[in-house]
Amino acid sequence: MAYLPWERAWQEALFGEAGFYRRPEGPAGHFRTSVHAAPTVLARAVARLARTAGCSAVLDLGAGRGELLTALARLADEEAPLRLHGVDVVGRPPLLPPVVGWSRADGGIPYGVFADALVVAWEVLDTVPCPVLEIGPDGRPQLVLVDPGTGRERLGGAPGDADLAWCRRWWPVDGLEEGDRVEVGRPRDTWWQGHVGLLGRIGGGVLLAVDYAHTRATRPPLGTLSGYRAGRLVPPVPDGSCDVTAHVALDAVAAAGRAAGAAEGTLVPQHTALRSLGVSGDEQGADDLLDPAGLGDFMWLLQRVASAR
Questions:
Q1: Is the pLDDT score of 119 beyond 70?
Q2: 243 with 229: CB under 8 angstroms?
Q3: How far apart, in whole angstroms, are the C-alpha atoms of residue 218 and residue 67?
Q4: Can you tell me the distance from the alpha carbon of 141 to that of 144, in angstroms, rounded to the nearest whole number?
Q5: What single DSSP character describes residue 81?
Q6: Pick from 78, 76, 131, 129: nearest CA to 100
Q7: Strands across the sheet with 232-234, in order?
Q8: Rounded distance between C-alpha atoms, residue 42 and residue 273, angstroms
Q9: Is the pLDDT of residue 30 over 60?
Q10: Phi and psi torsions of 132, nearest 5°
């Protein structure tokens, strides 16, 4: 068996040549999220957020097969249209409306024409691979290694200094017991900081991340690493056959954004965010989006990025 650090195996499983996110059925074939539950309701809320924030465009990172953008395009007859563009690891979806632009992630993100955009990362950060640590028999954190073909794991030595520094600030290991786990969010912070920097350099805008999340006060002792296949929760085997995901330390992401020049930002549950944007339970499908025990429990992080020019 060829054991790899979880971060490396995870990256290949999702985004490699035969990765999960390149499968023809797309993410919607395996799990349901807000845009699948009530696309029109969600699109109206996102459009309202964009206009309230002074944005004239929506740039959707990790856009799947363009479900949110398609719903936004259908609003063009109701309100002044927003410029729309999606980015993902696959080519342009065949049913995407012509008004929506599209780029492959490996071809670069067209930030140059999207100053003052609302940049959306909907359930993207939870798929950014990160190191997984486990407290060993000696009480110290060790890297978790995984066999990509079977999902079997073993411990593989001490983590690096950068990961330990992140843990000291955001997910302390002191007091954890043997078998407890930490998902080191440092790569997610770095990903977010990169987009803050890019957006600032081309004229500013607003960044929105939406994900299942936790904060320092609510870190789960056994972590959240999971797999999803065909609508079912399954063991997270990084062989490309299932989604591999872990909840996001979104408070750390927010702090990383501020360190890169973003504003303080807002961190609120989805049900609160959507109600503030005028969504009510009277709209068809809205109950799913607002349910605090379901999709309404997603967390929203909204940060404005000023122009760095």
A1: yes
A2: yes
A3: 32
A4: 9
A5: P
A6: 76
A7: 232-234, 226-229, 243-245
A8: 11
A9: no
A10: -115, 125
3-state secondary structure of 15: helix
**In sequence order, what are the beta bridge partners of 155?**
144
**Rounded to whole angstroms, how far apart are CA atoms 141 and 56?**
46
Tokens coding 70: 């398609």
Picking from 28-32, 123-127, 186-190, 220-224, which range would have the lowest pLDDT averaged per residue?
28-32
Report the candidate in 135, 136, 142 with the shortest Cα–Cα distance to residue 156. 142
Rounded distance, CA 244 to CA 261, Å?
A: 31
Q: What stretches of the chain show up as alpha helix (H) in DSSP? A: 6-15, 34-37, 39-52, 67-73, 161-170, 186-201, 250-259, 270-276, 286-290
Return the structure tokens found at 189.
């912070």
Considering Cα of 77, then 79, then 80, then 81, what sign does the dihedral take?
A: negative
What secondary structure does DSSP assign to 149-181, as a single string?
Answer: TT--EEE-SPPPHHHHHHHHHHS--TT--TT-E
- Tokens standing for residue 98: 């012509």
How many Å apart are CA 242 and CA 117, to the nearest integer?
32
Of 4, 84, 11, residue with least CA distance to 43: 84
Q: Is 173 exposed, middle or buried (0-12, 13-18, 19+ CB in 10 A)?
A: middle
Instruction: Determine the average pLDDT of the residues in 187-216.
Output: 94
- Among 303, 300, 301, smallest CA distance to 260 is for 303
Per-residue confidence (pLDDT) for residue 106, from 0 to 100: 82
In whole angstroms, what is the distance from residue 144 CA to residue 133 CA? 5
pLDDT digits (tens, 9 = 90+) for 145-162: 999 999 999 999 999 999
36, 71, 54: which is closest to 288 by C-alpha? 36
Q: Across-strand partners of 142?
A: 134
Q: What's the maximum distance between 2 C-alpha atoms anywhere in the chain?
A: 63
Q: Where are the beta strands (DSSP E) in 64-148?
A: 83-88, 100-104, 117-122, 132-135, 141-146
pTM of the model: 0.94
